[in-house]
Amino acid sequence: MSGSRYSDLERPPLSEAALNRALVRPGSLWTGLTVVESTGSTNADLAASASGGAGEGTVLVAEAQLAGRGRLGRSWSAPPRSGLTFSILLRPRPPIATQGWLPLLYGVAAASAVRRMAEVDVRLKWPNDLLIGERKLAGILAERADDAVVIGMGLNVSLTREELPTETATSLAVEKAACVDRDPLLRAVLREVESHYREWTAADGDAEASGLRSAYLAASATIGRRVRVELPGRQAVIGLATGVDLSGHLQVESEGERYTLSAGDVVHVRPAD
Questions:
Q1: Has residue 77 got a pLDDT over 70?
Q2: Is residue 8 pLDDT above 80, yes or no?
Q3: Rounded to whole angstroms, how far apart are CA atoms 178 and 202?
Q4: Distance between CA atoms of 109 and 257, rounded to whole angstroms?
């Protein structure tokens, strides 16, 4: 059994068949879910599939990701089956100007699902991290692929403290969460994403009308805090994070000026206190 996908009984494999039975139904957003043993990047694979005409609602899950990427090309890795690494393919109909909200929508949905299933207080660090306290539990990366959007997430589930990639990371196991079973966690996240995505789509991408903006602000660990926003070229803005505008941009008040920052403008957001 050594080296087989069942050799680590503490980290059982996901069942592609069971997940498809649970999630792929008539009228569902999810149209097909594939689980692979390993790949370089689920986002890169789905982006290629999108260019080949793959439909909305395609989901790709990797038990191990060998070339995982975070925002700005930062590398990301974890032991096989110690987390959830997966990407979804969307073909959003609302105006492209509203689609900057999609990674925030995903964050709201994922935080809500994990909070409910794992019974831990998950908060959102703008623009794309799930936190427990000040430690990173998960990262989210959204990328455009022609007229599609691919969104991936890496969620630390059973990693031990020694396996965590940095001192500022955490996992559900380290936090003694009520649920560290990847199957129900994945189902819960995808169902929550579908619910929020349908509401946002029905409102034609209006984050205010759909309730998305208020839900994001309620879950935010950034808004209302003094932050240091590091920009390209070693520049920085230090001030109070006051809100998120209707395009999903971070608003920071500093020395009497208001800065409106998109995710693409920002290298890091850190607490200033």
A1: no
A2: no
A3: 34
A4: 32
pTM of the entire structure?
A: 0.93
Q: Estimate to the nearest angstrom the gap between the alpha carbon of 74 and the chain centroid.
A: 15
3-state helix, strand, coil in the chain (%, to 5): 30, 30, 40
3-state secondary structure of 174: coil
Give burial (CB, 10 Å; 0-12/13-18/19+) of 273. Answer: exposed
Query: Would strands 135-145 and 129-132 be described as parallel, antiparallel, or unpaired?
Result: antiparallel
Q: Are 127 and 103 in contact (CB under 8 A)?
A: yes
User: What is the C-alpha radius of gyration for the chain, rounded to an integer number of angstroms?
Assistant: 18
Which residue matches tokens 């630390």? 156
CA distance 158 to 110: 17
What is the pLDDT, as a whole number, of residue 64?
96
Contact yes or no for 54/62 (Cβ under 8 A): no
- Is the Cβ–Cβ distance between 108 and 215 less than 8 Å? yes
At residue 1, the pLDDT reads 41
